[in-house]
Structure formats: structure tokens, C-alpha cells
Amino acid sequence: MLIIKGFIIGLGKIMPGVSGAMLAINFGVYEKLLSAITNFFDNLRSNFIFLLKVGFGGLLAIMLGSNGILYLFTNYKFLTMLFFIGLMLGGTYRFSKKIYYQRKHIIILLVIIGLFLYLSLGNINNLGVLPNNEIKYFLGGFTEIFASIVPGISGTSLLMILGIYEDIIELIANVYNFNYILDNINIYFSYSIGMIISFIINCYLVNYLIKKHKNNSYVLVLGLSLASIIYLLIMTFKLKFVLFELLIGIVLFVLGIIIANLLAK
User: What is the phi-psi region of residue 101: left when phi exceeds 0, alpha when psi lies from -120 to 50, beta otherwise?
Assistant: First the structure.
């Protein structure tokens, strides 16, 4: 069962708009994952087996699903995006019910959404001004793990904002291609280093925040999640589409919301 849950969480990691951490919460394994990582040596055998099962399922999903996601993005990007935005909205709605709201939280949500949209729509994704691509992919790796650990945030959405989502999917899809790996070894290395550093920092940080400041942490997560949805909707409707695609897209959008709610039960 843990392998199956890990597989679905892994699919969530490569689907734009879906939060793998949110799925982990819905499946009741999120806080146990954090505990197993941050207290790994306290119960070495049990934690190792638990992480191995969930990790194997997740890795299997990423390896098998990347080519399919790449195909959908290449040929049906508008429809694919609407479906995944629906998934994200459905998961965010379920997540929002876990929060105890005060007046200050509404203000915090509005500030987070406004700041996020200002930065993302202000061409923050155009990172060509950075000295080299390695820095961009290092940030991508750091962001990916951060979003993997923080519930409610879609790592794929943030990679889109950084402008490297399709590049990363292509890297994963060609992981069996030795010549491709050699040609792009600097990108693989930069991305991996970003992931490792992010993993070390954020596991302990998020575990502390969830334990000590759970409600306020969830408000922050909700704000980032809502801002990501708005951003992705804006970017999706900038794509070329016809009326027929729009109608199908609306159906897929609603289907995504329904599926997200079913997974959360």
C-alpha cells in the first residue's frame, strides 16, 4: 500500500499544478515522512523501510510518467494545463478547510498572493540575465525540493514560473540516454546540488514550523497555492486555442477538481 501511495505522490510531483506533499497529507503519510527523515536514526530499521517503500513508488512514477507528461505538453498543452489547474484547485480547497482563520490571515493571504503575482508576472521567469544556466537550474532544484516538502505548493508550477519545467521533464525522460546525460551533465549536476541542499535545509525547517506554528504555516502555504493557480490560469489563457478546445478544457478542469477531492477522501 505504501508503494502505491508513493507512486501516486510521485505522479503528483511531475504533474503541473499538483502538490505531492498535499497528496501525502491526504494519504496520511506526510507527517510520518517528515518524522522519518528528521529522526531517521532514532528508529533506523522502521524509518528506512518506510522511506524505501514510499520512495520506490515515487521514483517509479517519475521515471515511467515523464515521457507521457512530455507528450501531453507538446501536443495538448492548453487542455493539459486546464486539467492540472483543476486538480490543484480541488486539492487547495480541501487543504483550506484545515486552517483556523482570523482576520489577520485574510490580510496575509492577500499580501502573499499580490506579491507572488507581482514577481511572477513581472518576468521573474526570464532568468537569462543570470550569469549562466547552472544558477537557474540550481534554483530549480532547490525550489523543487522546497515544494515537495511544503504541502499545497506545486513544484511544477514554480518550475514553470522559473521557465524550466519542460526542460526538467525532458531531462528526466532522457535519464536512460547516456549520450544525452553527458551532453547535459552540468545541468544534471546543478539541479541535483540544489535539490540536496534544499532537502537538508527544508526538512528540518518545515518539520519545526509544522510542529510549532502549524496554522500560520498553512496560511502561508494556502496563499502560495492560490497565487500559483491564478498565475497558471493567466499563462494558460495566453496560449492559442479554439472554442472547441475551450469547451473540452472546461470539462477537464471540472474533472480535475472532482478527482482531487476523491483522492483527498
Answer: beta
Residue pLDDT, tens place only, 82-112: 987 887 788 777 778 878 888 888 888 888 8
Q: What band does 193 get if pLDDT is binned at 50, 70 and 90?
A: very high
How many CB atoms are closer than 10 A to CB 227? 23
Is the pTM higher than 0.85? The answer reads no
Query: From residue 102, how far is each of 92, 97, 99, 218, 224 by CA, in Å?
Result: 18, 13, 10, 13, 18
> Cβ(142)–Cβ(201) under 8 Å?
no
The Cα–Cα gap between 159 and 261 comes to 24
Alpha helices in 76-213 (DSSP H): 77-96, 103-119, 133-149, 155-162, 165-173, 178-183, 185-212
Q: Measured in whole angstroms, how far is the alpha carbon of residue 167 from the centre of its chain?
A: 15
Closest to 143 in 3D by CA, of 92, 195, 210: 195
Q: How far separated are the first and last CA of the chain, in Å rounded?
A: 16
